């Protein structure tokens, strides 16, 4: 069976399995003034809500609301500032749209508040860097994304020394998965993410996608991939800026799909969803032929 169809199954979110039979698109909803590709564009409840409507119309199954930029070199903000950005948008999305809501946060205090408001997923790019995060998620029935990173956004790009990047990312994520499970987050609620662009060089990002089966195989959980508009795509395309990287993003997602990834975090959902659905249908046909 080709790798592309070997990793089917489901992800348990608030007690309900989200099928991974078809590729799942997570739409990025950054409500920050300073995110690397869309900072300031959807800052504030009304612009964010209209972006959310677009992402859902384009086929996002999950919206990932982020109140703090984690771009390389960024300094971080307080929990109260983060909540002031995220909560109004979370409430507005909840009130209007039928979509799962993820919140991209490294802080247990933020997670606790958004879980109380009905967030379905906590997307933690520090993979439990906050010692209270595992227990906070365990107290709910929400799902958890554990993403690989080294250091902090301020220091991560000086922490790119790896022997075998795929094996080391898997080895560094494994204790985080174990920590979450030990705290009471059922394994079926957890998804792992290699952290494209977080303490990785452009070459290491390519290698991670090329060998993503190593990460999936070691951890036994579905993989979420977040290549969207990242610098390695710009570097491959002659230095194009973040706005010109959506087609390159689709290429990275399809390459991930071919290697078993089922969940994709992207800024432009429609093109990615359409490309992934077509590629997935071809991979299924290939599997049906038994090759
Ligand atoms: N990438 C970013 C933020 N959150 N979460 C996961 N699980 N995986 C990722 O690859 C990932 C993530 C960075 O992208 P973006 O949100 O567009 O930028 P910023 O951090 O500047 O807001």
Explain this structure to me?
The radius of gyration is 17 Å and the shape is globular. Helix 1 crosses helix 2, helix 2 (79-96) packs parallel to helix 3 (108-116) and helix 9 (246-258) runs parallel beside helix 10. Strands 8-7-6-5-4-3-10-9 form an 8-stranded parallel sheet. Strands 1-2 form a two-stranded antiparallel sheet. The protein is built from 10 helices and 10 strands. Strand 1 (10-13) and strand 2 (16-19) form a beta hairpin. The chain has helices at 45-57, 79-96, 108-116, 133-138, 165-183, 202-210, 212-219, 231-236, 246-258, 269-288; strands spanning 10-13, 16-19, 24-30, 62-66, 100-104, 121-124, 143-147, 190-193, 224-225, 263-266. It has one domain (3-288): Alpha-Beta Barrel (TIM Barrel), CATH 3.20.20.20. With 291 residues, the chain is of the alpha/beta class. The model is unreliable at 1-7 (pLDDT under 50). Bound molecules: 6-hydroxymethylpterin-diphosphate. Residues 28, 30, 32, 35-37, 66, 69-71, 104, 123, 125, 145, 147, 193, 195-196, 224, 226, 265 line the site of 6-hydroxymethylpterin-diphosphate.
Secondary-structure blueprint:
Layout: E1 10-13, E2 16-19, E3 24-30, H1 45-57, E4 62-66, H2 79-96, E5 100-104, H3 108-116, E6 121-124, H4 133-138, E7 143-147, H5 165-183, E8 190-193, H6 202-210, H7 212-219, E9 224-225, H8 231-236, H9 246-258, E10 263-266, H10 269-288
Parallel strand pairs: 3-4, 3-10, 4-5, 5-6, 6-7, 7-8, 9-10
Antiparallel strand pairs: 1-2
Helix pairs in contact: 1-2, 2-3, 5-7, 9-10
The structure holds 6-hydroxymethylpterin-diphosphate.
